[in-house]
Sequence to fold (168 residues):
Amino acid sequence: MKKFSFILLAITLMSCSATKNNLATKEQDEAKISTILNAWHKAAAEANFETYFSHFTSDAIFIGTDASEIWNKQEFETYAKPYFDKGKAWSFTPLKRHIYFSKDYKTAWFDELLDTQMELCRGSGVLTKTSNGWKIKHYVLSMTIPNENAKVVIEEKKTIEQAYKAKL
Fold:
């Protein structure tokens, strides 16, 4: 009986230690990811092309606010380069951010509310842990629309988006 109690105690202690380690890993990775995302946004605000795009995986996808804006990393670099070359890309300031992890802590996803030149926007994305640290694999930028203004916005964009849908 003593042997069983000892084994049970050992398993319990190991489980508590693993949980504690997971919490520490989560907190550390949350801090790392927030630092990376903040540096990424800062690089855009400072028009630092190399730093901005170094935060992406080579196969990253960026989805912008326009229905036609879905780019792989190379296409997004081509789209963004003229803005960065002018010394003014875009400026997004995170107001609130949530970060979530896969069980193995190799994938993270997040959402963030941003203060931008377009007023409030929402960004969401996926990061993967690589040998070079966390990298953005997928990012989606969306404009927020207050519910009470939705009908006006829908009416405003209807003609443009019907033409776009016809091309699809």
User: Anything to note?
Assistant: The chain has one domain: 2-167.
